[in-house]
Amino acid sequence: MHRNPGPESPIGIFDSGVGGLTVVKAVRHALPGERILYFGDTARVPYGPKSQVTIRRYAEDDTQALLRHQPKMIIVACNTVSALALDVVEHAADPLPVLGVLEAGATLAVEVTKNRRIGVIGTQATVCSNAYAYAINRLDPQIEVFSRACPLFVPLAEEGMVNDEATRLIARQYLLPLVGEGIDTLVLGCTHYPILRRVIEETVGPAVRIIDSAEAVATRTETMLMKAGMLASRTEPPVPHLMVSDLPQKFGSLYRLFMDSEMPDVELVEV
Amino acid sequence: MHRNPGPESPIGIFDSGVGGLTVVKAVRHALPGERILYFGDTARVPYGPKSQVTIRRYAEDDTQALLRHQPKMIIVACNTVSALALDVVEHAADPLPVLGVLEAGATLAVEVTKNRRIGVIGTQATVCSNAYAYAINRLDPQIEVFSRACPLFVPLAEEGMVNDEATRLIARQYLLPLVGEGIDTLVLGCTHYPILRRVIEETVGPAVRIIDSAEAVATRTETMLMKAGMLASRTEPPVPHLMVSDLPQKFGSLYRLFMDSEMPDVELVEV
């Protein structure tokens, strides 16, 4: 069905909306020569509050949207899909390799923690799913995980309120209880949160190491492609190929906020 | 098809999610003897960013969910449906009377303003649809409407941050430019916003009259039922009949926040 992908084939990345652009940015930073194919299911965002059956159906659709463009691998930038439907993506994409943002973040956090007390922040849905704690404890059952939902962080990021007193106050309210638990590592378990990284870092202080799952998955991508001899040979950074299922208001300004660059053309696809 | 509804039949109210509970609360306050039937389409919230075709299909589904329980009238508590699909509801519910929250708020604002400068706040989708400005100018083309999207107000309300410094800072950022335009009337064009009414009032000051669309639609409901001889004769406030399409996390605490009372049983319906 598919032609065999080669080193010059694109890396496919999908998310439920715009948040996965932080993963695009991290992958471009780590691997500037790679072609990137991004699908954001902006018509059906957010996935978090939906049932598992629905999320698994969406994960299949999203994977198919990428497969039509012959990627060499797939990165699941959506924490919800990583938690509840990674096997659906693996099955649909077989034999292509699949990396999930959640497992990458959890693995790096386990490597980094010294006192085995890890904080995880995410949306209500991610925190309630307990998926990070599960992934972390599968690697090391001794680690204590302290989770906290931060529902205001996504709209604060989308409003571009990255350096506001209101954001600092809210960050203190969400994060100081975790600091009080003595964590030495904090996982940003939502793709939007890197936008607020500076405020988050200031709030938790220098003793807490921040794990950005987007950066973690970019590092793993690099390692994996290198081992497989599938790194692209380009040196010029190609423009990402963007696909969305609905063109949301403010998409252009969100793109600039997430990517620090002007938005290229966007393809509207039906799912 | 339907039995003829009588004065003791319920008032049907629907919204895309929990926000419409502010309308339930206002109607119960104005008409404590009425039975209330509420449907919140919590599986498909939010409607705002979706296409008009999809919103019109959802409006039909929501109306049918209420019609199965033989209401005597229908209140559209959802600003998005009021703006884009009120005719769909009217057609499906015919010959029952239908009231939309948007028209009720717009009409009251036009009655109240003295200097003909009205502010409207709502979600990005409501503000971009320009529906309040259109409804207001249809009643009085001389009125100047100043709109502002306040995307953080819904999550701040849902977090219960009704008396926080962060909320005050954000309210100032959103509302002071409207006050600077010399408005004398401010429409709360989103069903969540009454939760933050105190902060909003403090921010805009006593010279600006707040129009709560939920209260406005409750007043119109009372007038309409009275004229039609359809007011219920009960004196004991009956427990609302709640239906949702998905049971969201935190539904119980949101219900308490919106209604100031404990949540009754909730029926899960498929749409």
UniProtKB/TrEMBL annotation, chains A, B:
Substrate binds at residues 15-16, 47-48, 79-80, 191-192. One of its GO terms (molecular function) is glutamate racemase activity. Keywords: Cell shape, Cell wall biogenesis/degradation, Isomerase, Peptidoglycan synthesis. The active site is at residues 78, 190. The keyword S-adenosyl-L-methionine does not apply. It comes from the Bacteria. It holds the Pfam family Asp_Glu_race. Pathway: Cell wall biogenesis; peptidoglycan biosynthesis. It catalyses: L-glutamate = D-glutamate. Its EC number is 5.1.1.3. One of its GO terms (biological process) is peptidoglycan biosynthetic process. Belongs to the aspartate/glutamate racemases family. Provides the (R)-glutamate required for cell wall biosynthesis. This is Glutamate racemase. It comes from Chlorobium luteolum (strain DSM 273 / BCRC 81028 / 2530).
